[in-house]
Specification:
92% of the residues lie in helices and 0% in strands. By secondary structure, it is mostly helical.
Length: 145
Amino acid sequence: MFRFKLQHVLDVRERLERLKQKEYSLALMEAQRLEHEIALRHQNMVRSGEHMDALRRSTPSPYPLQLHNQYRKRLGGEIQVLQQQLREQDQVLEARRRELVESRRARRTMEILREKAHTRYEERQSRRERAEMDEVAANYHTSRS
């Protein structure tokens, strides 16, 4: 029966890879959330501009225009803050990706070692079987003569 001596190391590396995958997924979800927030702010700017165009035609007062400008400035500031957060999150995401790649590489290294050990085990078993078969054949041949 084949038993890989470093199986516990392989199990640990598989668990670490799953943890790294989870960390990467969480970082990716956060980056996607920030992108979605930025897109919403841009949509709000477009909608407010369309609304302001309609309001400008109907109301000659400058007050709504001032409110609109302040709203657009606030949205612009929020977009800049979100873009900065997204840049930082992209750096975190890249670090998590590198960690995930490294953990996959470490796990794969152990799997290759296990495959090589299994191949050597199979070859030893095959040699033993051939030796036993040769011995059985020799005994049969000598008993027959």
